[in-house]
Amino acid sequence: MWRYSDHPSFFGPLYPTGSGTKPGVVGLLVTQLSDRTQRPDDMKILLLLAALIGICLAARPCSAPWELTFRASRHDQADTYYRRYYVEYDRPNQRVAMFEESFSGGTREIREFLFLHYIDTGFEYDFRLKNCTRFRTGPFRPFEVPYNSTYEGSFQVGGPGEDFTVDSWSDRIPTRRENWLGEFSLRNCYPISQFLVDTTNFNRTSISHFFDTVQGIVNPNDFDVPTECTRLPPDSFAPISEQALRARAMYAGTFDL
């Protein structure tokens, strides 16, 4: 059965496919009402409209689209190179397939991490060594801005005529600095980047960038268990590897589940 990893352009171009509310809405309303003879009723309407628009434009935590295919890169504090990923994310079925390319010691390595959270089972397959391990995935945590996150601000990516708004969120609280900083597009909540700090092991601290994002699952066969993994004894579970733990944190936003 065809899998994305069988394609010769494994990490080649993905079929590339928002823009936030345009600025100046409140200003436009003020100008229009100012051009009229301002009666008390006009001012009440203006204040009411300004309040409603403020509520509508207020930054709110969001969830990424429930089915996504995207590429990513990640740099860990302990590494001297980037790891590259091709990812299929399926929230309704609580499963994620990640293909990782790295260059440890100058050797190109490709691994697949298959997280089947709905059965608490994951697989790590090494394409070069052709060996597989099974592990427990832990509970599913969706790709999203948690509801109790702190809004850090927004900014525009790009320039005039080609730009979109990005919201920045963190887990900062008054008594502690942030350990997670996530950036998502305003309109569709597409993931843009993530900075993740591990206070117990700083070498795990990483920054990830997400790109070439499309909605939907491009190749459902990527969720098939690799053939070599089907030969494992049914009850053989190994501890989750450090590589799988870091890959899972890219969408879970935490090392601990």
Describe the structure.
The chain is of the alpha+beta class. The protein has helices at residues 25-34, 40-57, 227-230, 242-252, and strands spanning 67-76, 83-90, 95-102, 109-116, 121-126, 131-135, 150-159, 162-170, 180-185, 191-196, 206-215. A hairpin with a 6-residue loop joins strand 1 (67-76) and strand 2 (83-90). The chain is elongated, with a radius of gyration of 22 Å. It starts with 24 loop residues before the first helix and ends in a 5-residue tail after the last helix. Residues 15-37 and 51-56 have low confidence and may be disordered.
Put the structure in a nutshell.
It is built from 4 helices and 11 strands. The chain is of the alpha+beta class. The chain has an 11-stranded antiparallel sheet with strand order 6-5-4-3-2-1-11-10-9-8-7, covered by helices on one side.
Shape type: elongated
User: How many β-strands, per DSSP?
Assistant: 11
Mean pLDDT: 84
Number of helices: 4
Radius of gyration: 22 Å
Strand content: 25-35%
Please name the defining characteristics of this protein:
4 helices, 257 residues, alpha+beta, 17% helix
Write the layout of secondary structure elements.
Blueprint: H1 25-34, H2 40-57, E1 67-76, E2 83-90, E3 95-102, E4 109-116, E5 121-126, E6 131-135, E7 150-159, E8 162-170, E9 180-185, E10 191-196, E11 206-215, H3 227-230, H4 242-252
